[in-house]
Design a protein that fits this description.
single chain; 4 helices; 2 domains; 19% strand; three-stranded antiparallel sheet; alpha+beta
Length: 193
């Protein structure tokens, strides 16, 4: 079966739910853009926004956990894993009244924007990336970035990121040519910008 883990902020009594980020609960299932490691970097970044390549979000979630005591705790934890901390109690009451609070939903909009993806579904979510769209060519701008496309044989187009995220979220499980969505499948045309 394996051990299931979550990330806990022992200082603020908060935690991250890997399933909501499209990851499994086993440590070897944590990866991919917008997964648990990326969420941790956003939460721990104490000086973001001061230079090129930093996160563009001015949300209080960026750096929220900087300097706090953070631990990855599994359901097989034992007394003494962290001195003076009841890890079994923390894991078993996560999300319950009086237990640690799940902040994953508050973090998702920042991850979607910064990593150009969307989380789809309930429970163990799927992640869909802008790179899953045929002709994806990057982004530019601040605020609601513009997502750029140059489909093969097509002309250059750009759309507000919020519109592209909404289209991806509503796309269902279908895919286009070569495993990618087409702009047409997503209902994105230059006429509806």
């Amino acid at each position: 079966m394996g051990q299931y883990h979550k990330v806990f902020n022992l200082t603020k009594r908060e935690f991250l739910n890997p399933h909501k980020l499209g990851n499994g609960l086993k440590l070897l299932e944590w990866g991919g853009p917008g997964g648990v490691p990326d969420a941790l970097v956003v939460l721990l970044a104490c000086s973001s926004g001061r230079g090129g390549g930093d996160y563009q979000s001015d949300s209080e979630m960026v750096g929220r956990w900087a300097g706090d005591q953070i631990a990855v705790i599994g359901d097989y934890s034992e007394d003494g894993d962290i001195q003076g901390v009841d890890t079994k109690e923390i894991y078993s009451t996560a999300g319950e009244e009086g237990g640690f609070r799940d902040i994953t939903d508050e973090l998702i909009p920042i991850l979607e924007r910064e990593f150009e993806l969307v989380y789809v579904g309930d429970g163990w979510c799927d992640r869909k990336s802008m790179e899953d769209i045929e002709g994806y060519a990057g982004s530019h701008g601040h605020g609601d970035r513009m997502i750029c496309f140059r489909p093969e044989g097509g002309r250059y187009a750009e759309f507000p990121a919020s519109k592209v995220r909404e289209a991806l979220r509503n796309a269902g499980d279908g895919e286009g040519v070569g495993g990618k969505y087409t702009l047409k499948q997503l209902g994105l045309t230059t006429a509806n910008v």
